[in-house]
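Sequence design from tokenized structure. All designs in this work follow the same two-part layout: the structure record, then the generated sequence. An example of the structure record is given first.
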């Protein structure tokens, strides 16, 4: 009788152990980005507020979203660097053109980090408040930029129901950075609904998850 209970106890213990391992496997994200180096460029900062709505500044939203994105990417195993971690820009007091100096140093940091790719986070504005939707911009200086842009845009369409499309840009930072990367406009500060959502951590996490899935799909495509 005692032996019977011992066997039963052992079986229950094994089943419990396997259940715990299964739950643990479900909770932990798969480390799909191990070995990948990603630099996040939270747009604007310091003297440069970016676009604004009342007392709401783009530079602050960019940094909040970037910090959430960093966490999600790191959970997937990526090594992540931030261009800025606070309300600052990268210009020097010796720069005659402050904005150009700031952007030039961002490019240098992306290169110094030996990045596999960079993600530049921004918020959009339109004089028509009805315009909305996240979108991705790229420059063809690197042929993989379009692949990355389309991969992220596909996830935005699936997760955020945006009907916007990938756009080509000639802005200074993107046309002078040979490392693969894109400009991500996370939504419109001018749109009442998106302005509300962009300030919510839950929506910032939703954005970060969509971007991360796009990055995962990008690496799958270029490695194939």
């Amino acid at each position: 009788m005692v032996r019977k209970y011992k066997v039963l106890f052992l079986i229950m213990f094994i089943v419990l152990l396997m259940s715990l391992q299964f739950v643990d496997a479900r909770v932990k994200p798969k480390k799909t980005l191990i070995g990948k180096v990603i630099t996040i460029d939270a747009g604007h900062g310091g003297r440069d507020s970016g676009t604004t709505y009342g007392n709401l500044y783009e530079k602050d939203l960019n940094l909040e979203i970037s910090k959430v994105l960093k966490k999600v990417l790191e959970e997937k195993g990526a090594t992540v660097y931030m261009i800025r971690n606070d309300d600052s820009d990268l210009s020097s007091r010796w720069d005659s053109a402050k904005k150009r100096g700031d952007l030039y140093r961002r490019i240098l940091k992306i290169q110094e980090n030996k990045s596999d790719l960079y993600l530049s986070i921004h918020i959009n504005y339109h004089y028509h408040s009805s315009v909305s939707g996240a979108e991705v911009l790229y420059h063809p200086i690197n042929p993989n930029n379009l692949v990355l842009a389309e991969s992220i845009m596909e996830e935005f369409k699936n997760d955020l129901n945006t009907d916007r499309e990938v756009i080509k840009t000639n802005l200074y930072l993107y046309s002078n950075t040979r490392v693969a990367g894109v400009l991500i406009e996370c939504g419109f500060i001018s749109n009442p609904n998106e302005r509300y959502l962009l300030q919510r951590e839950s929506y910032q996490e939703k954005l970060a998850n969509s971007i991360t899935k796009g990055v995962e799909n990008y690496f799958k495509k270029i490695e194939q």
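The radius of gyration is 21 Å. We note this feature because it recurs in several other targets discussed in the main text.
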